[in-house]
Sequence to fold (325 residues):
Amino acid sequence: MVSPAPRFLAAPRNVAQRNGLDSMDWEYTAELFLGGLTRGSIYALIALGYTMVYGIIELINFAHGEIYMIGAFTGLIVTGVLTMMGWNEVAILVIAATVAMIYSSCYGYTIEKIAYKPIRNAPRLSALISAIGMSLFLQNYVLLAQTSDFLPFPALIPEIGWWKPYSHIISSAEIVLIITTAVVMILLNFLIKFTRIGKAMRATSQDRKMAMLTGVDINGVISMTFIVGSATAALGGVLIASHIGQINFYIGFIAGIKAFVAAVLGGIGSVPGAVLGSLVLGWTESFFTGYVSSDYEDVFAFIFLVCILIFRPAGILGRSDTEKV
Fold:
């Protein structure tokens, strides 16, 4: 079982002391802050898919983590082929990410048509069971098609020469992850607010029946939502796998759970909320790991989530729905 966040992002306090650093040293604090920012960016690339699907059809797509995993495996296969052909690292990264996004989008589209569309009007428990079943199916499918062992993933983001003296605080790969997350969030906000399909998504989210009566293609909107969400997860899969350096068939489960927690924390259904929740979760884990212990990092993250939801049930940026009788 592998956490989607790199283990070296935040060192436990005893490690910092062995390295001769005071736990209150500004450099160590900056390292933890930037490490948490990187963790949050990792979670956000996956959480965006959760929040988009839930915002449209109020469904938790628990197979979304496996889409992320499939994207990482697709990127590994493309990387291996292009490496044998002698391509440079940057070109390999761009092509591998593009192919992974397209391939995973096809999976997202197919999953929606097979597992969710037939039971769209069924009780929510049916959709939940279908999502869990699809998640298990994809896990075992990749296990049988690939291997249960951990596979090395080459580092495709080279370290910038002039940045090497500062790479112990934040590496070039982590900077790319943070920038990519920011760009993806901006593009998704633009898509939702200023494009025709975005307006259709908002109409479908507010009132599906009324949107259908006004001529909105509900099926097309829902399919596009799954396609876009799957593409962001696949992009994250390639970048994160390249950063961590290894993958296996199970990485989607842990990544999916953490991203789902982040989406709920920020206010599921809100794109900025998913990013904000991911950053809060990333910083919480990073500082707890750095100043307390790495043994209970996941436990502390979920306790923090419970505390937030007690006082803010809709999440940080979520809005409570008022039902009229």
Q: What stands out?
A: Residues 7-158+166-311 form a domain with the ABC transporter involved in vitamin B12 uptake, BtuC fold (CATH 1.10.3470). Residues 265 and 308 are 7 Å apart (CA to CA). The longest helix spans residues 26-57. Residues 1-23 have pLDDT under 50 and may be disordered.
